[in-house]
């Protein structure tokens, strides 16, 4: 088990390049199995979740490796269409291989991803949609078996909730299905648009990505593509929270202003300033933050659930009371325990957390319990007096590339042990 030792109280300064988006990279890696020839993915973050996806690809028979900063995948040699339990367990997001495998081979067998650290993670919307496209699906003993021997058929799919994963699985299945598929109430996250951009570059015909209705004209042959993965808006929000909580000024390079449109106003409410200039963001924070009033997580373009924990870390040192309402996941306040140990004043009632800002946080030994929660603990530790030891850094490494190196380059005192 690795841990971070953070000596807090230092101001951050300087510039940081924001890594590529994990939540784009994972579905795009799954999408490569629909293509012939070589795919070149640039700006792909090197994370444990990306590594797990590449191991799944190699298990399936694809070539997947990193070379000179790019990830290269060639799926011509794909020969398997099941994913063993051991690989599925490593990463819940591997469910996105379901639509792609089924579309490519007419069969897919994988174990049910089950619950995770955020609470139950059902996939009923994924399966309902694939059934509507003609897949025969059995779920027994935690194993999902999908068949579409005669291929999938395009369909009209109305999602009761704009699930990111379900939208991705439907798109992946639909690009090889016969005829058009229409997704109504599709997820609108930038990572969905990035997946569709990649698929369109590979030869697919997808319209409406980023909007509530997506139309996919299926049945096109797809060929390897060269693609630049979008910057990670959650990592950007994490670095902004880190600057906010330490009263610092930093520049983030390679950010997309639109992707942060729900996050910036919350920081502005606290007195921070964000100035965008051609992909650079100059972010500065006052000595003492004002409170955030109400932060409600919502599907995009609403405030992202993935940024809730890191904003809460900043709220612990605000002047006044901030309220967080978590509307996407049932169990997403696991960072509260660690923040409280550092001296934060937080009361949780169901899906609402009330944060009364305190004057100071104090270093302690704390443990991360999920990915974004880990980032929140590191963020708070940057502002805590003395030394904080954060255990469970494996969670952080699922989504943040060499994070201790990045923070150190901004002047923080962070060591990985
Ligand atoms: C993706 C992101 C994750 C982010 C989340 C919400 C990836 C790899 N992960 O996760 O970082 O926090 O979007 O923005 O991109 N649901 C159902 N039935 C389903 C599917 C989902 O009830 O079939 C529910 C979930 O339990 C959850 C909510 O819908 O409460 C949102 O889930 P979803 O949008 O599917 O998130 P993920 O794709 O799992």
- Low-confidence residue ranges: none
Specify the number of helices.
14
Tell me what portion of residues adopts beta-strand conformation.
25-35%
- Cα-to-Cα separation, first versus last residue: 9 Å
Rough outline: elongated
Tell me the total number of β-strands.
24
Q: Average pLDDT value? A: 96
Radius of gyration: 21 Å
Bound molecules: uridine-diphosphate-N-acetylglucosamine
- The helix content is 25-40%
Class from helix and strand fractions: alpha/beta
Main beta sheet strand tally, sense and closure: 4 strands, mixed
Could you characterize what this model shows?
- With 417 residues, the chain is of the alpha/beta class.
- Helices cover 31% and strands 25% of the residues.
- The chain has 14 helices and 24 strands.
- The chain has a four-stranded mixed β-sheet.
- Strand 12 and strand 13 form a beta hairpin.
- Helix 8 (233-245) packs parallel to helix 10 (308-315).
């Amino acid at each position: 088990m690795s841990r971070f030792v953070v000596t807090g109280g230092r101001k951050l300064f300087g510039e940081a390049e924001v890594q590529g988006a994990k939540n784009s990279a994972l579905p795009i890696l799954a999408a490569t199995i629909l293509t012939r020839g070589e795919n070149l993915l640039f700006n792909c973050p090197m994370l444990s979740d990306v590594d797990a996806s590449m191991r799944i690809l190699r298990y399936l028979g694809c070539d997947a490796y990193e070379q000179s900063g790019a990830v290269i995948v060639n799926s011509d040699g794909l020969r398997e269409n099941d994913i063993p339990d051991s690989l599925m367990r490593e990463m819940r997001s591997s469910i996105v291989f379901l639509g792609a495998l089924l579309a490519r081979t007419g069969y897919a067998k994988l174990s049910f991803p089950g619950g995770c650290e955020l609470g139950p993670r059902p996939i009923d919307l994924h399966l309902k949609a694939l059934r509507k496209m003609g897949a025969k699906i059995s779920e027994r003993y935690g194993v999902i078996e999908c068949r579409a021997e005669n291929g999938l058929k395009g369909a009209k799919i109305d999602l009761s909730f704009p699930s990111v994963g379900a939208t991705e699985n439907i798109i992946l299945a639909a690009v090889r299905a016969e005829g058009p598929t229409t997704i109504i109430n599709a997820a609108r996250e930038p990572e969905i648009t990035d997946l569709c951009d990649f698929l369109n570059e590979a030869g697919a015909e997808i319209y409406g990505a980023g909007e509530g209705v997506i139309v996919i004209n299926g049945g096109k042959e797809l060929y390897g593509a060269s693609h630049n993965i979008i910057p990670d808006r959650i990592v950007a929000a994490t670095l902004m929270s880190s600057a906010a909580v330490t009263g610092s000024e930093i520049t983030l390079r390679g950010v997309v202003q639109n992707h942060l449109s729900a996050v910036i106003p919350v920081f502005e409410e606290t007195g921070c300033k964000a100035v965008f200039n051609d992909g650079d963001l100059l972010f500065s924070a006052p000595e003492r933050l004002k409170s955030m009033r109400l932060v409600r997580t919502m599907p995009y373009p609403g405030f992202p659930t993935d940024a809730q924990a890191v904003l809460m870390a900043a709220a612990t040192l605000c002047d006044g009371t901030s309220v967080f309402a978590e509307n996407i996941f049932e169990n997403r306040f696991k960072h509260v325990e660690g923040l409280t140990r550092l001296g934060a004043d937080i009361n949780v009632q169901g899906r609402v957390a009330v944060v009364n800002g305190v004057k100071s946080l104090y270093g302690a030994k704390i443990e991360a319990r999920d990915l974004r929660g880990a980032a929140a603990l590191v963020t708070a530790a940057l502002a805590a007096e003395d030394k904080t030891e954060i255990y469970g850094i494996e969670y952080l490494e699922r989504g943040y590339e060499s994070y201790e190196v990045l923070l150190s380059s901004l002047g923080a005192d962070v060591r990985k042990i």
